[in-house]
Amino acid sequence: MAAAASDRTSAGGASAPIPLWRLLQAAAGAVAAVRGGQSGTAALADVEGSLRPGAQALAFQALRQLGRAEALRRVLASRPPPGPADALLCTALALCWREDDAPYEVFTLVDQAVEAAKRSAGARAQASFINACLRRFLRERAALVAATDANPEARWNHPRWWIERLKQDHPARWERILEANNRQAPMTLRVNRRRSTQAQYLGELHAAGIAASAVGEYGVVLERPRPVHDVPGFNDGVVSVQDAAAQLAAPLLLNEWSRGTPLRVLDACAAPGGKTAHILELADAHVIALDIDPLRCQRIRENLQREGLQAQVVAGDARQPSGWWDGEPFDAILLDAPCTASGIVRRHPDVRWLRRESDIAQLASVQARLLDVLWPLLKPGGRLLYCTCSVFRAEGEAQVQTFLAHNTEAALRPAPGHLLPQSGAKDDAVPDNLEGDHDGFFYALLEKRAGPAPA
User: Could you tell me the pTM of the whole model?
Assistant: First the structure.
């Protein structure tokens, strides 16, 4: 059985097959790390390179179904086994509870999960327990699943507080948001207008036998994801990876501006630099790309270099302009504020399990501080685009309405407001959303009415 399973997975094109039990070990380790408060990205970065692609695919699927898996484990065993064993058991349950969505034949998954336990120092003593639970699950699957259907965390695979918050914020759409969150996000590209057009690039993909479709003004969605360096034109800066909702930022900020004198633009909280690059693709501008993390600033430089673009990359805290601002006001400011990332859980399924309800108020306070501090740096007549990759109203509509109530010189210009995640299916469409597949975002465009220049 192990040999048959291993034939189905190879690492990054390597000739030697990797046993499935090793991938399950690594995936369960990532799930355990997320349960312990570590981000999935960081946990997977610690996985051996040859195992990482397969382990990530399994871990992400397990995290998307973790609510159901934990509910099933509670029915199978009221007392959880030690952490590593419980993570492995729940990972296996998440992967095989719905047979038509299982990445491997379910009996193979069970067999290899038990093998992974036998070969894991932290789960070896629980291998028989894991085997008994999984074999019982296979025998009684329908009844056990039915026994967990009434549990909202099992039904929706999100924490209970998250579900209740969505019901409050989006009473007519909360179910569609959760359904979209549990689907795998596509690979979406942004075409660099200085190098090509959407139509030209789609033609090149078609000629190369790569199925893709247009989304938005600059976006291209690949029918099947592929390694980024295998994407035609990526290494030459023709395209970048960026979700369709995130691609709205630069056009919203720059729309209707004169193309005469180069604009002076601040991209606050700029890493990894996708929106900075898009601004430079669309306009001749002097852009200051600011981020608090020097390591993330290096990522901005690398992305700009790949596209042949230039910006002034600065490591500094946007909340403390005295440490980086030269006193010259900006024509435009893009504030992609720190947030719960509740709109991008399709791409980062660990977020739902890492966040706590109290994080919303804490991050909303940071967002309010950033708005208050950056607003005076804007010229009269200038624009500030406030955005978050969140679907929670406290980080979007409520945040902006509070700001407007305290800043009478601020005028709200047309912008999408809350964009809700959707898969692109017609019955999933939400009014005012982009046509097609995209993450959840919020956009508000604020214009400063004429008045005295900032001191």
Answer: 0.91
